[in-house]
Each structure stands twice: as structure tokens, then as C-alpha cells.
């Protein structure tokens, strides 16, 4: 059994911290393959044992244990855990193991029927409704739905799932929090996704993508544990969960004595509309991206501001090393050809006019915010603009960093649709544009053509404030600027590089100990 969340900060090389993610279809194949080579009920026995072991380790003094068991094999895991916990607490004062049984037991699959028989033989108490408020259990085990849920919850299970998500007792979820879609992190029931009590999830056999993106992290609780039930899946993963370290590599920079700023890579940020005639300024966004690129080790960082008729600031007093200029001046130079261009942060509508030149000139281009909005819908029914075709032919690198609404605009749908299947949304955009896509949010998904997507493990809700996306864009710019062309040769390598920057960005809040949540500027201190 391994704890995946909270993650330990990696010190190992980039590839050391990655775990295969298998969706429901792949997990079924693995389950069938394993079940075929093991004695009957072995997998469920191992699953029930793992659940009981973790429940005891987490709440060693629990005497009143409630298992909420559904009608399928997820419920089976719960029934077996109840049998084992009953044996453990039997004879202790106040001991009580109850199973709130849902579903039609006459339709239980064979493994679950066997597990239920074990529990009844062990003497667990079966109940048909939740315990009264006054008799709150010390710990609850959520075994209503696991892998078998792929549509809206119906019937009596609705109330049970709602109860589970509002009850005040610590809750251990078996395989998946009931209500969560294993593949997408979509939530299939009307109930608060963030429960009030401490909870953890023990996922079994495989790690499922839905636990780590969308609403997965919010529903799964403070910790996610994994038990492979002794089975090593010989099946290619649908995606990878990543926590790459190794960047920025400060010791390597210290060792590079003969280095100079020209070797560390240049970044040009284009955006940051100044408050001109419209009175609306977004200069800070470009400054944040520039500061982040500099902080992360880029040798020279230029910020080209969209002037909008307002006077240019002479410098960024917080980071005077940033070289400020107008966007026009930046574009009149050769910077777009040789620097990594990060375009769009606070760019406003003026970004649209600059975009064609950037697409045609910048071999390494990161498109964020208003640069994405300026792209317009790139729905599959229409031909891609010629500039995209040419970029692909030339093997140029484009990174898109949409948040869900920006992704929805690009896909011509709404953000709920994007959030309902973040992996699919990121993959679609990446394949369509031949680009690397970082779909931001809880569990940022990094997708590139022809390679399984990556789901980032670092970061948390402390990042949910204005400007943190600009910081990420700057970090990605710096990461690309640090790479020589050979190391970005494949789509998978480019995705890895972007994933390193996303992981470093998420890690910025991990050590935050301030009284207040950090602002985007605080992240760069
Ligand atoms: N076999 C083994 O040895 C191992 C199994 N393992 C465990 O099995 C789990 C998968 O079990 P599973 O395939 O039986 O699915 P599960 O999550 O229990 O759901 C099925 C039940 O839910 C019901 N139901 C579904 N949708 C519904 C809805 N919308 N609204 C209402 N009801 C709905 C459905 O009812 P039905 O659709 O049949 O009417 C049925 O009763 C997996 O997550 C893991 O915990 C692992 O430990 C490995 C070893
Ligand atoms: N709950 C969360 N968990 C992890 N990361 C988050 C969460 N909320 C926001 N973030 C991250 O914060 C950043 C916000 O970016 P964005 O929405 O573009 O903000 P802005 O445009 O104001 O800079 C993204 O990198 C996103 O992944």
C-alpha cells in the first residue's frame, strides 16, 4: 500500500515520480486477467483486507464502524472489510460494526455475495437506514459505488451518497468516493463535492485518472492511498500521474561556471495592456509572467507591453532586471525568432492583431489568456488557419495554457463540458493543433499529440487567485528557454518539459506557511 496524496516533494530525476493511470475499461481488463489467474475471491479478499487495515491504522480507537455498502463489488469490498473489522473489535466495550445495505442483494455479483456471507457469519449488524444523529459512528466506510458508476446516481443510492457527503464522521472511501466518475473526475450526483469531515480514499488495483483531476481531489479527501492488490498491470496506461522534480535545476546552474546569461535562454512576454483610452489596464499580468520567467532561471527576460496610448512605465521596480518595451518595439526586433515568446497575459483584445505575426515568426510560442481567446473556436469542422499548418510542418513548438473557460471557447462548447472530461478536452485540442496543451485547474492535464496525457499532482486551492496563471505561463516560458532543441524533439518530451513547469508551479504553495493565502506575487518571493 502506498500513499499518493499528500505527495512527498520529489528530489529524484524527472521521470522518477510518475504513476500509470488506468481508466475503468483498462481496469476491467486487468481485473479479469488477474481474477483468471488467481483462486476465486482472492482479489476481493485482498481488497477487503486492505480496506480493513487502512481503517484500523487511520482510526485505531474506532469502536463503532459503519460500512455503507452498494449492490455491486464495491459493496463487496465493504462487506468483507466489515467482516474483518468485526473480528478485530469483537469483545471490546462499545464495539459495533454495522452495514447499511443498499441495492438488491439477490442481484449481487458472486464475489460480493461471498463477501456478504462472510460478514453475516462474522456477526455484523445489518441496517436499512443511516444511524440516528446521536449515534454517529467513529468511522464510516463508503463502499456504495466504485468503478461501476458511469451515469447519474438514481434511486435510494441518491440519499445514501448525500448522507455520506454530509455526515460528520471520518470517512474512508473504497476505490473511489461514491459519485465520482473513475475516468474523468466528473461528479454524478447532486451533493456537495467537498465533505465536512476528514476523509481519505483507498483506491484498488489501479490508480484511476478521475481521482486526480476535475472534482477528484476535492471528493477524495485529505489523502489518497493505493493498493495494487499484488497485481502488476501489463497494460499501457491511459494517462500518467506526474510529479516531476528536477527543474529548475539550481545545482546544475551553480556547476556551470563558464555560463553566461546568453546561455540561459531568453523569454519575451507579450501582453500587459496599459490603461490607455479604455482606462482598463492589465500590465501586471505580463509583469508577473516576466518575473516568473526570470525567477525560474531564464537568462534575459523582455516584456513587450501593449501601450494602448498610455505612457510606458520606465521599469518594474519590484524586478528591475526585466527589460520593458512596447510590444511594437519587441516585434520590430529579432526577439520573436530567437526567444521563447509567452503571449497573451493581460493582452486584451489587442492581442488578436499580433497573433498572426507570432504564429508565423515564433518557433517557440506559449499562448495564454487573451492570445487563446484571439484564436477563436477551432472546431473540428473547419480548416485550421494556414499559420498552424505551417507551424506543424516546420516542427515548431506551441504550448497552450487554457483554463477551462478558455478551453471551452477554443472547442466551441461550454466550460461544464470541458470539466466533465478534462482529459478528453486537453487531448482533443492537442491533437487538433499539434500543440502541447496544459488544461489548468485542479489536476492540470498536459496533453500532446500521440502520447498519453499527464495529470499533475502538485498544487492546491491556494493557487486559485488572480495572476497565478500568468506566473505559470512565465515558468513554462523559462522551462522551454532552458531546453536545447534536441531535448524537445518528441511530443512526449515537450509534454514532460511543460509538466515540469506545471509541477514546479504547483509546488509553490506546498511550503506556504503565511497567515494569509499567497498572492501571485508572493509565489515568486
Ligand atoms: N471483482 C473483484 O474481485 C474486485 C472488485 N473490486 C471492487 O469492485 C468495484 C467495481 O464493482 P462493480 O463493477 O460491481 O461496480 P460498483 O462500483 O459496485 O457499482 C455497481 C453497482 O452500482 C449500481 N449502480 C451503478 N450505477 C448506478 C446509478 N447510476 N444509480 C444507482 N445504482 C447504480 C449497480 O446497479 P445496477 O446498475 O446493476 O442496477 C450495481 O449494484 C471496484 O470499484 C472495486 O471496489 C476491486 O476491489 C478489485 C477486486
Ligand atoms: N484548486 C486548484 N488546485 C490546483 N491548481 C489550481 C487550483 N485553482 C487554480 N489552480 C492553478 O492556478 C492557476 C490559475 O490560472 P488562471 O485561471 O489562468 O488565473 P489567472 O488568469 O488569473 O492568472 C492555474 O495554473 C491553475 O492550474
From TrEMBL:
Residue ranges of every copy of the YjeF C-terminal domain listed in the record: 242-525
Reactions catalysed according to its record: (6S)-NADHX + ADP = AMP + phosphate + NADH + H(+); (6R)-NADHX = (6S)-NADHX; (6S)-NADPHX + ADP = AMP + phosphate + NADPH + H(+); (6R)-NADPHX = (6S)-NADPHX
This protein's record includes keyword Isomerase: yes
Keyword terms, alphabetized: ATP-binding, Isomerase, Lyase, Metal-binding, Multifunctional enzyme, NAD, NADP, Nucleotide-binding, Potassium
CC cofactor: K(+); Mg(2+)
Listed GO biological process terms: metabolite repair; nicotinamide nucleotide metabolic process
UniProt-listed Enzyme Commission number(s): 4.2.1.136
Cited InterPro entries: Carbohydrate_kinase_pred_CS (IPR017953), CARKD (IPR000631), Nnr (IPR030677), Ribokinase-like (IPR029056), YjeF_N_dom (IPR004443), YjeF_N_dom_sf (IPR036652)
Pfam families in the cross-refs: Carb_kinase, YjeF_N
UniProt remark on cofactor binding: Binds 1 potassium ion per subunit.
Class of the enzyme per the UniProt entry, highest EC level: lyase
Entry similarity comment: In the N-terminal section; belongs to the NnrE/AIBP family. Belongs to the NnrD/CARKD family.
Residues binding AMP: 440-444, 469
Protein name as annotated: ADP-dependent (S)-NAD(P)H-hydrate dehydratase
Residues reported in the UniProt entry to bind (6S)-NADPHX: 285, 346, 403, 470
Role: Bifunctional enzyme that catalyzes the epimerization of the S- and R-forms of NAD(P)HX and the dehydration of the S-form of NAD(P)HX at the expense of ADP, which is converted to AMP. This allows the repair of both epimers of NAD(P)HX, a damaged form of NAD(P)H that is a result of enzymatic or heat-dependent hydration. Catalyzes the dehydration of the S-form of NAD(P)HX at the expense of ADP, which is converted to AMP. Together with NAD(P)HX epimerase, which catalyzes the epimerization of the S- and R-forms, the enzyme allows the repair of both epimers of NAD(P)HX, a damaged form of NAD(P)H that is a result of enzymatic or heat-dependent hydration.
Domain YjeF N-terminal stretches: 27-237
GO MF, any single term: NAD(P)HX epimerase activity
Description of how the protein assembles with itself and partners: Homotetramer.
